[in-house]
Design a protein that fits this description.
DNA-directed RNA polymerase subunit omega; nucleotidyltransferase; RPB6/omega-like_sf; DNA-directed RNA polymerase; 3 helices
Length: 69
């Protein structure tokens, strides 16, 4: 499997740190959901999370771009 470059995944206003945090959080969710259902994952949760990000199934929101009330 080819690994996409981080530069291809994130935009110019996003940091690599945010990419790592977002993918790791989603990977933990995928692993926990599979464990709760009793499924055995063939593909690694991190690979699945990266593919979901590339397919725009979720997005990374930088802390600075969040509105503060």
């Amino acid at each position: 499997m080819l690994k996409p470059s981080a530069d291809l995944i994130i935009g110019p206003e996003q940091s690599r740190y945010s990419l790592v945090v977002a993918v790791s959080k989603r990977a933990r969710e995928i692993a926990a959901d599979a464990e709760n259902r009793g499924e055995i994952l063939i593909e690694k949760p991190v690979d699945m999370a990266v593919h979901e990000l590339m397919e725009n199934k979720y997005e990374i929101i930088e802390p600075d771009s969040c509105s503060k009330e």
